[in-house]
UniProtKB/TrEMBL annotation:
PANTHER family: AMINOALKYLPHOSPHONATE N-ACETYLTRANSFERASE-RELATED-RELATED. InterPro entries: Acyl_CoA_acyltransferase (IPR016181), Bact_Acetyltransf (IPR050832), GNAT_dom (IPR000182). Residues 5-139 form the N-acetyltransferase domain. Keywords: Acyltransferase, Transferase. This is GNAT family acetyltransferase. One of its GO terms (molecular function) is acyltransferase activity, transferring groups other than amino-acyl groups. Pfam families: Acetyltransf_1 (PF00583). Coiled coil: none annotated. Signal peptide: none annotated. SUPFAM superfamilies: Acyl-CoA N-acyltransferases (Nat).
Length: 139
């Protein structure tokens, strides 16, 4: 029988496996994704940045975060070998439960234009599109 998949908070020791997973999933690192910054995020929002583990292997991730007003979802990823078994749904449900538990009532996420097809995945989970103009600045 295959190992059951457990979802748990990530630790700094998971970072190499997470990087490899994101690479396999086509999620490219941002300049903010240094080990130091990711370690700081794990400390800043304990219990929100999650990994899915099958045996000793990291097969999924979701980087939920909370800015004190809104929840955010980043880096949702399921290893290609583990797709199609609702692990993405499980990761999202766990992230939402944990955000709700700390007082979050709205969750936001962004989709890269070259990954627009994934909108269907999120719509099934109740996410709607909001026609905002997204602006940003590196400081
Ligand atoms: C998106 C992702 C996490 C989904 O993981 P998963 O565990 O395979 O998804 P699930 O098994 O929970 O899928 C549930 C449903 O969503 C659909 N779905 C899954 N991935 C999808 C995608 N990329 N685009 C559109 N629909 C998708 C499935 O077809 C399934 O639909 P159904 O209910 O009609 O059968 C996975 O495809 C992935 O890691 N993609 C690459 C990284 C990525 O794009 N992340 C999101 C960044 S915004």
């Amino acid at each position: 029988m295959p190992d059951p998949i457990a979802i748990r908070p990530v630790t700094v020791a998971d970072l190499p496996a997470l990087r490899a997973l994101w690479d396999r999933c086509g999620l490219h690192p941002s300049a903010s994704d240094t080990d130091q910054r990711l370690a700081a995020l794990i400390e800043f929002a304990p219990g929100l940045f999650l990994a899915a583990e099958c045996g000793a292997e990291v097969v999924g991730s979701v980087m939920a975060s909370w800015d004190g007003r809104r929840g955010w979802i980043n880096r949702l990823a399921v290893d290609p070998s583990a797709r199609g078994a609702r692990l993405g749904d499980r990761l999202m449900a766990e992230a939402e439960d944990r955000l709700r538990a700390i007082g979050c009532d709205k969750v936001n996420l962004l989709i890269e234009p070259d990954n627009a097809g994934v909108e269907r995945f999120y719509r099934r989970l109740g996410y709607d599109r909001d026609e905002l103009i997204f602006m940003e600045k590196w400081i």
